[in-house]
């Protein structure tokens, strides 16, 4: 019966069913045919109880904050400040795009929101300074990945919820990995700039003090969020709530850019995004429950033992599995499907939970831009009104850089664990 259930799940996936059904139907069939003695109310308890966790409250708050900032002035002011330092240098506008995405990610935790915000701001600038359309689109889509690594990251929050790993530790580890990825993208920008002599903008004629003053309220957001979390002043969930209040205050009272009607529209978009994620999380909780009681992690461990596979081979298998999954399904769904059976195996292999979490998160980043169904590709296409194929053609060199960084992070654990070790040795 198990092969039949797996076949049903794959058939539904290929036929284009919604992911909540691809996750849910096999879980309920597993209960019906393999564990019929489990009372039906248990499934409801797993559905509701799986998402009835205070840690997950951070997700709707950060999504709401990201929508507020993408629709307002905060993203623009942060980018203008970065542009003041980098725009007039070789490849400066490209570097501004990368660092701007990292800065926006540090207050939003959402890659699609970063694509939407930075795409509108930086695409015209990239084209004006000579970058090709394909490279510009690829850079915008790929740079947004750093939002999933630079804290606060919604992906790391979900991983921490699933595995019980310290979210603060994951955030600190994500900072190191995110900076590594950002620097790698800047290296590619520099190479392209030298090769084609493009990307150098004009030196800003606005005094630094004026630019800094204009961005000072926007800068307060990452300072409050990251400073508060790392200092232990408040939890990631509390930081998320504070970010919403702060963003509403700044956009409405300081920048005077947020009207009541716009707030309603932003709230509606954030609510839809939150609902989609939580439905997937609820279904994933049920699937994870059956993965556990079916002893799938034990089966995987026994298989790896039989073929005498060590941590190096195991992590290679993990990366391949996530890469293939990222080509066809939503990255969050890949997280919910693959982490429950693989995480216990990682522990038995002696792999640090934070290191494994950063590997998983970086794989999710790659899934966001991997053709044919990378989510950020379609967000960019919609935001910038560009053909999907043009974006896919521009993504390839950045995908190659992603894979190189993934290999580096996979087999050099210190990139993910060094900073957390300093904070909590």
UniProtKB/TrEMBL annotation:
A Pfam family annotated for this UniProt entry: DctM
TRAP C4-dicarboxylate transport system permease DctM subunit domain: residues covered: 8-415
Localization terms from the record: Cell inner membrane
One Gene Ontology MF term: transmembrane transporter activity
UniProtKB keywords: Cell inner membrane, Cell membrane, Membrane, Transmembrane, Transmembrane helix
GO cellular component, one term: plasma membrane
Membrane-crossing segments per the record: 48-70, 137-161, 167-191, 212-233, 239-258, 270-291, 311-329, 334-351, 357-379, 391-412
InterPro entries cross-referenced by the UniProt entry: DctM, TRAP_DctM
Domain of life according to the entry: Bacteria
UniProt topology in membrane: Multi-pass membrane protein
Main location: membrane
NCBIfam families to which the protein is assigned, alphabetical: dctM
Stated name of the protein: C4-dicarboxylate transporter, DctM subunit
Protein's organism: Desulfovibrio gilichinskyi
Lineage of the species this protein comes from: Bacteria, Pseudomonadati, Thermodesulfobacteriota, Desulfovibrionia, Desulfovibrionales
